[in-house]
Amino acid sequence: MRPQVSAIVPTFNNETIIRRCLASLTWVDELLVVDSFSSDATVEICRGYGARILQHSYENSARQKNWAIPQAQHAWVLVLDSDEVLEAGFAEELRGQLASAGADVDGFRVRRKNLIYGQWVRHGGIYPDTLVRVFRRSCRYHDRTVHAHLDIPAGRLRDLQHHIIHHDFTDMHGYLLKLARYTRYERDQLVRDGKRFRLRDLALRPAAMFAYSYFYQQGFRDGLRGYLVAQLKAGYNFLIYLRLWEAERGWDAGP
Fold first, then answer.
1. Is pLDDT of 252 > 80?
2. 163 & 47 share domain
3. Which pLDDT score, from 0 to 100, does residue 1 have?
4. Residue 255 resides in a domain
C-alpha cells in the first residue's frame, strides 16, 4: 500500500485566504484543520473542502502543532499554513519520495517561495527559506514561542524539489496585524531565555539587519520589494527589543 498523508492546517479567521490553501491539498488522504475558534466563515469553508475540524485554544505555533500532530490518522504529516499553497507537481513528487523512503528517513525539507505583493523575492535572505514540512507523526516541534523547529537530525531528512508558495505580504494592514503577534512571541521567547534589554540592541540591531539583508544578501537585486524586505526586517527587530524594554517595566500588555 502507498504511504498515506495527513495534512494539518492551523487556522484563525482566514476566510479571505483559506480556499487557495485547501485547493492545493485535495489530494491528501486526510485534511485536518485545527482552528483557534474563528469568528468568521473559516470553519464552514473548510468543511466544504471535506476537512475534519478540531478546535483548540492557541498559545503558540509549536504547541498548537504538537497538540494537533497526534490527532492525525496517518503515519506521514504535512503541515501547511493558511497563507501557503503547494506548487504544482508537489503531490506527485512527495508520493514518489514516500514510496521509496526507508526507516532511516523521518522527514522532508521543502523550500519556500515568499511572495511580496504577489512577486517572488529571491534575495535579501528570504530564499531559499528551507523548512521541514513533511514528517513522521512521531515527530514534535521544540517548545519555543516562535520559529520552532522539528527535532529531527539532518541525516534523517531528504530534500524535495517542489516548493511551498507563501503569500507573505499582500497589504500593510495584514502585515501590521501579524507584526503585533510575532513581535510579542519574539519578546516572550527572549524573556524565557533570560535576555535583558540593552540599548545597543535597540540602536544597532535594526541597522545591522537592514545592511545585512539589503547589501550582503543582495536584497537590492529585487528592487523596491528587496528594499521593503530589508526595512521590514529592521523594523521587526526594533519592535522586538522595544517590547522587551516595555515588558521589563510592566508596560506591554498588548496582543
1. no
2. yes
3. 78
4. no
Question: 61-99: per-residue pLDDT in tens?
Answer: 999 999 999 999 999 999 999 999 999 999 999 999 999
Burial 184-213 (b: 16+ CB within 10 A, else e): bbbbbbbeeeeeebeeebbeebbeebbebb
Q: What are the start-end ranges of the E strands in the chain?
A: 5-11, 30-35, 52-55, 76-79, 84-86, 107-116, 119-120, 129-136, 157-159, 164-169
Residue 74 · residue 30 · CB < 8 Å:
yes
Please report, for the domain that includes residue 140, its CATH number.
3.90.550.10
Cβ atoms within 10 Å, residue 138: 10
Entry pTM: 0.94
pLDDT band at 255 (very low <50, low <70, confident <90, very high): low
Residue 243 CB coordination number (10 Å): 22
Rounded Cα distance between 111 and 126, Å, is: 10
